[in-house]
């Protein structure tokens, strides 16, 4: 799905989190929102997911205005930094949650839910953990379960907030490739937020560098490396 | 989801956060909570003062000046002045023993200290009567020696200490666990005596928690009814505490007197709540009750 | 366990004094009196205890105390959770006062609560007049007892649930919403299970308190044998007749109920620790 961000701005009371920003995300792209904390990247991601409402501007999905769609209607697969897994549910119940929450008319039959959850567990290469609880999983396993849970609702896009932030360096490297593989397999338009320029450069098709609520530069990783548009970008990618 | 939803007009009626209920639901819940509390707690509070002042201030004050009322007030103050310090000393000692030393059966000891909270005050009073009453061997001997416990002040003190037993200890234990033993150990290596270490290192760290526990203990001690009703014998002018006197006045249809004394205790309860809230607001980090992980 | 010494040797001072005071007070105030009740029971004998309890009036009182305590705790469970939710999640004028007022039943002497509720709901009372008009008599009926028990147990659920609500990460609720769940679905399937252990603990505490409650109830109860006579009142009546054996027998029955409540509370906490990883 093609995502168009049109002059989106966001104020929290008197502080401005986002100055009007515009951005076009082609269908099937894997995009990184890169910047230091307070740059507005997470706010932008949350506006895409319908968790925040912009002060002004529009969000377009496939050319149609989606600004007024509620979170539920967006059908965005959202992976939270803390993963936000449901602690009182098993891995299976976590992944099945979105399907079971649907109104009866559109809810898949039990066997179908079962089949889909199994397939997702295979996709994240953890077929054996269905009956475990989140507290019994390693950090890397939790991240992959959160990803599978987001994919279960057959989302129209994948939004990830610092998906590797809570992991140690070694696991982080492994899971990067995992995310790339899943993206290539599902072909979902995906946006992830990161403050780690290596991660952004290695993983993304398109990198959006942000600072102080503004977009500093949009470009392919190699272009941003070769030709930083501003002083900030030069400093940030060198750091 | 069908594509039709995508054609909806761009501006939503009102954006609703994913973590909030609809405004209507929100106001309905607030109404239930505030209305329910006003009816269940607010109304009884107000009626105490309304009834006490139904014949004016003079009648209320006069009723409190009667001999029975005066002796009840004095007795309750006396009981509180004995029982609360006893509990404070016990609470400090128990908290010190439990948090500064490692021993087997600690969990069981804590359960024993908490036990009085789960026992009916009437049963607590009954236990004391059975132990010290004139019918028991021990009680008979004490009465013969001229030191009666039951139907006398010592019994009321014991009953009051029983029902307020865990208040100070359970407030201090979590706070002292949190603070660990390092500061005391440092003081000891610097040559301080045990008492000096307690006074200059431990006590400043636990003073707000101690005050908080003592406050709750005082409120309960002044208002205890069930246990005291059983052990006191309700002797007018001798063993009738304020709550017992309220019952006597009430049963004698002395409504103004009953409610005036109730208003006095209610005033004290309100003062307790005020102080407690102030402590929670200003010293939340030093209290276990408000420490929310 | 068996290999560790009874008490670890440390440099910390005050072992003798603190242990001494602790055990002296525990013995004098708690152990000896409860021991006296058990001793009395042993002397009275199992047959006599059973004969005392197995009378219609005693069964009726025990059943009444337990049943109304249960119903009051049920009300407090629902109302307490709503109250906790409103206090933590919403901002409205007077919130702090409401929060402080929740503790009033803890601070107010039970005898005061008893006469206040009776004055309100007596047939000529402010609220009693209203309820009597619709043919609903509260004072001197089981409704009155229930109301008094609701009052004394009111703070427990709110105070156990409040910290748990404060701890919920909003991301979990957001995750539920992004997965397409309606707010109601989120509340039922995500929030409610998280609050359940704390709410049940509060429920059990409220129940335990209500079963033994005396002061707030006797004024409004009417105290009619078989109908509105609570178990603690029976003990008081037996004692007033110097009937120590019978008083002890009923006391033992109530002690047994208290201990099973304590066990219940501990089981709930063990269960919740297993399930959620903390209390």
Automatic annotation (TrEMBL), chain B:
Note the CDD domains from the entry.
TM_PBP2 (cd06261)
Q: Which organism is it from?
A: Paracoccus hibiscisoli
Record note on quaternary structure:
The complex is composed of two ATP-binding proteins (CysA), two transmembrane proteins (CysT and CysW) and a solute-binding protein (CysP).
Name the Gene Ontology molecular function terms of this record.
ABC-type sulfate transporter activity
Q: Among the entry's GO cellular component annotations, what is one?
A: plasma membrane
Q: Where in the cell is it found?
A: Cell membrane
Q: Which residues span the membrane?
A: 24-52, 72-97, 109-134, 146-169, 209-233, 253-275
* Functional description taken from the UniProt entry: Part of the ABC transporter complex CysAWTP (TC 3.A.1.6.1) involved in sulfate/thiosulfate import. Probably responsible for the translocation of the substrate across the membrane.
Q: What is its main location?
A: membrane
Q: Which SUPFAM superfamilies match?
A: MetI-like
Q: Which UniProt keywords apply?
A: Membrane, Sulfate transport, Transmembrane, Transmembrane helix, Transport
| Residue stretches making up the ABC transmembrane type-1 domain | 73-274
Which gene does this sequence derive from?
A: cysW
Q: Which Pfam families match?
A: BPD_transp_1 (PF00528)
The name of this protein is: Sulfate ABC transporter permease subunit CysW
Lipid bilayer topology: Multi-pass membrane protein
UniProtKB/TrEMBL annotation, chain C:
Q: What does this protein do?
A: Part of the ABC transporter complex (TC 3.A.1.6.1) involved in sulfate/thiosulfate import.
Superkingdom per UniProt: Bacteria
Q: Which GO terms describe its molecular function?
A: ABC-type sulfate transporter activity
Does Transmembrane helix appear among the keywords?
yes
Q: What InterPro entries does this protein map onto? A: CysT_permease, MetI-like, MetI-like_sf, Sulph_transpt2
Into which family does the record put it? Answer: Belongs to the binding-protein-dependent transport system permease family. CysTW subfamily.
- NCBIfam families the record matches: 3a0106s02, permease_CysT
**Can you tell me where the transmembrane regions are?**
12-39, 59-88, 100-122, 134-157, 190-208, 242-265
Q: What is the lineage of its organism?
A: Bacteria, Pseudomonadati, Pseudomonadota, Alphaproteobacteria, Rhodobacterales
Give the chief site where it resides: membrane
- Kindly provide the name given to this protein in its UniProt entry: Sulfate transport system permease protein CysT
Q: Which PROSITE patterns match?
A: ABC_TM1
Encoding gene per record: cysT
| Keyword Transmembrane attributed | yes
Q: Which organism is it from?
A: Paracoccus hibiscisoli
Q: Summarize the subunit comment.
A: The complex is composed of two ATP-binding proteins (CysA), two transmembrane proteins (CysT and CysW) and a solute-binding protein (CysP).
Cellular component aspect of the GO annotation = plasma membrane
Kindly state which keywords UniProt assigns to this record, in alphabetical order.
Membrane, Sulfate transport, Transmembrane, Transmembrane helix, Transport
Enumerate the spans annotated as ABC transmembrane type-1 domain.
62-265
Q: Which PANTHER family match?
A: SULFATE TRANSPORT SYSTEM PERMEASE PROTEIN, SULFATE TRANSPORT SYSTEM PERMEASE PROTEIN CYST
């Amino acid at each position: 799905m093609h995502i168009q961000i049109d002059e989106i701005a966001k104020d929290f009371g008197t502080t401005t989190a986002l100055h009007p920003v515009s951005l076009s995300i082609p269908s099937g792209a894997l995009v990184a929102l890169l910047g230091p904390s307070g740059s507005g990247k997470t706010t932008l991601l949350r506006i895409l997911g319908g968790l925040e409402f912009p002060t002004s501007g529009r969000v377009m999905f496939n050319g149609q205005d989606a600004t007024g769609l509620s979170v539920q209607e967006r059908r965005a697969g959202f992976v939270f930094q803390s993963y936000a897994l449901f602690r009182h549910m098993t891995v299976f119940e976590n992944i099945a949650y979105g399907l079971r929450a649907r109104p009866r008319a559109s809810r898949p039959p039990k066997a179908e839910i079962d089949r889909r959850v199994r397939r997702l567990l295979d996709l994240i290469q953890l077929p054996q953990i269905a009956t475990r609880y989140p507290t019994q999983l390693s950090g890397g396993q939790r991240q992959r379960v959160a990803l599978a849970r987001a994919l279960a609702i057959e989302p129209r896009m994948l939004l990830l907030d610092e998906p590797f932030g809570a992991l140690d360096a070694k696991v982080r490297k492994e899971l990067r490739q995992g995310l790339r593989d899943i993206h290539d397999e599902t072909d979902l338009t995906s946006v992830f937020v990161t403050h780690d320029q290596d991660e952004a450069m290695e993983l993304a098709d398109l990198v959006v560098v942000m600072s102080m609520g503004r977009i500093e530069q949009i470009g392919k990783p190699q272009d941003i490396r070769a030709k930083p548009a501003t002083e900030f970008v030069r400093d940030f990618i060198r750091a | 989801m069908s594509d039709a939803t995508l054609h909806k007009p761009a501006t939503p009626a009102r954006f609703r956060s994913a973590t909030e209920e609809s405004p209507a639901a929100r106001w309905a819940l607030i109404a239930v909570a505030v209305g329910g509390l006003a009816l269940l707690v607010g109304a009884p509070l107000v009626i105490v003062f309304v009834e006490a002042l139904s014949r004016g201030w003079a009648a209320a004050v006069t009723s409190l000046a009667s001999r029975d009322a005066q002796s009840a007030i004095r007795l309750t103050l006396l009981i509180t002045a004995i029982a609360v310090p006893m509990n404070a000393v016990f609470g400090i000692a128990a908290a010190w023993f439990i948090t500064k030393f490692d021993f087997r059966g600690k969990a069981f000891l804590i359960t024993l200290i908490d036990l009085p909270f789960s026992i009916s005050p009437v049963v607590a009073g009954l236990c004391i009567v059975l132990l010290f009453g004139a019918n028991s061997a021990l009680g008979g001997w004490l009465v013969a020696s001229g030191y009666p416990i039951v139907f006398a002040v010592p019994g009321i003190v014991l009953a009051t200490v029983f029902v307020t037993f865990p208040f100070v200890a359970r407030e201090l234990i979590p706070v002292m666990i949190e603070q660990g033993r390092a500061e005391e150990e440092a003081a000891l290596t610097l040559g301080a005596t045990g008492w000096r270490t307690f006074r200059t290192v431990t006590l400043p760290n636990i003073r707000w928690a101690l005050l908080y526990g003592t406050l709750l203990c005082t409120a309960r001690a002044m208002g205890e009814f069930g246990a005291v009703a059983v052990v006191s014998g309700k002797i007018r002018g001798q063993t009738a505490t304020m709550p017992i006197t309220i019952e006597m006045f009430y049963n004698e249809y002395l409504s103004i007197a009953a409610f005036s004394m109730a208003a006095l205790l209610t005033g004290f309860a309100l003062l307790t709540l005020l102080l407690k809230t102030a402590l929670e607001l200003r010293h939340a980090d030093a209290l276990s009750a408000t420490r929310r992980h | 366990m068996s290999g560790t010494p009874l008490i670890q040797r440390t440099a910390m001072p005050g072992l003798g004094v603190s242990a001494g005071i602790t055990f002296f007070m525990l013995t004098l105030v708690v152990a000896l009196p409860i021991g006296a009740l058990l001793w009395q029971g042993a002397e009275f004998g199992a047959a006599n205890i059973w004969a005392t309890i197995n009378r219609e009036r005693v069964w009726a009182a025990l059943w009444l105390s337990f049943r109304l305590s249960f119903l009051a705790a049920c009300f407090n469970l629902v109302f307490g959770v709503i109250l906790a939710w409103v206090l933590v999640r919403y901002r409205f004028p007077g919130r702090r006062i409401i929060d402080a007022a929740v503790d009033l039943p803890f601070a107010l002497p039970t005898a005061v609560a008893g006469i206040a509720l009776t004055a309100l709901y007596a047939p000529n009372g402010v609220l009693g007049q209203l309820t009597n008009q619709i043919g609903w008599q509260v004072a001197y009926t089981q409704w009155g007892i229930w109301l008094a028990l609701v009052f004394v147990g009111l703070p427990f659920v709110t105070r156990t649930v409040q910290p748990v609500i404060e701890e919920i990460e909003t991301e979990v609720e957001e995750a539920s919403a992004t997965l397409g769940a309606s707010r109601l679905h989120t509340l039922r399937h995500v929030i409610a299970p998280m609050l359940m252990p704390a709410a049940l603990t509060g429920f059990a505490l409220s129940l335990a308190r209500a079963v033994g409650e005396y002061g707030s109830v006797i004024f409004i109860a009417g105290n009619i044998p078989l109908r509105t006579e609570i178990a603690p009142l029976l003990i008081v009546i037996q004692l007033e007749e110097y009937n120590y054996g019978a008083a002890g027998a009923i006391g033992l029955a109530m002690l047994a109920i208290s201990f099973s409540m304590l066990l219940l509370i501990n089981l709930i906490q063990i269960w919740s620790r297993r399930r959620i990883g903390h209390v």
